[in-house]
């Protein structure tokens, strides 16, 4: 038991010493992000004719990330960055009337109201390189430019509620929730302006652009509504009314703030 404790202590001490010598940073960053969701918005409307009233279309959202950095005294840096990007839920309503046929419902049934909720989100994991401009040891400001690239695990939660009526005026309801998933490349270019208020801590502005266009998503599981009716199977593609694949594009500008901790402390000399 003592031997295990000594080994653990040695590994922890060695790791901390290496991080100290290498100039290790940790940055927490978050803020607002745009997303190029016009294709999703238009395809939802075209697939569900009339879903144009009281719309809250997909657009922007929030991002949050943790960035581990090794940066040399010369300003060159290597990064490992994990993020969560969540797009604000899109809501669409349709109160037009359509003929509808379903064996589990009476004859001459019509849809009189539908609403949809669409919630895309993704979790990229990226490697990056950066260069930091700074003055001498007394400099309080640093300017860092970086580029990142990696893979994103993306999801789209699609929820539908429909109200039906038959020839006698009786109403029925159908609700289902489908989760779609897709993988794709995610790249980011960022610029950070930081103010170091101690030798170890800084606060800054994070500005950049993200490219992440998920070309195809498929349903995670078989989907049934609340009546037990089969809607579509697991592995089904996210498609529009013309059976064309709908891409989900998270690309867009982003602006946020960051809090950075330098393990050793070199950006400022003393206060």
Notes on the protein architecture:
By secondary structure, the protein is mainly beta. It has one domain: Porin (Beta Barrel). The protein is 11% helix and 57% strand. The chain has helices spanning 2-22, 38-47; strands at residues 24-33, 53-56, 61-71, 76-87, 90-94, 98-100, 109-134, 141-165, 171-196, 201-211, 213-214, 218-219, 223-224, 230-232, 248-249, 252-262. It has an 8-stranded antiparallel barrel. Strand 9 (171-196) and strand 10 form a beta hairpin. It is elongated, with a radius of gyration of 25 Å.
Entry keywords:
271 residues, mainly beta, Porin, 8-stranded antiparallel β-barrel, two-stranded antiparallel sheet, 2 helices, disordered C terminus
Count of alpha/pi helices: 2
Mean pLDDT comes to 79
Low-confidence segments? 9-22, 267-271
Name the shape in a single word. Answer: elongated
- Specify the biggest β-sheet: 8 strands, antiparallel, barrel
How is the largest sheet built, in terms of strand order?
A: 1-3-4-7-8-9-10-16
Helix percentage:
10-25%
C-alpha Rg (nearest Å) = 25 Å
H/E order of the elements?
Answer: HEHEEEEEEEEEEEEEEE
CATH architecture: Beta Barrel
Task: Give me the CATH fold name.
Answer: Porin
- Total strand segments: 16
Please give the CATH class: Mainly Beta
Strand-residue proportion: over 45%
The assigned structural class equals: mainly beta
The total domain count is: 1
Distance between the termini: 45 Å
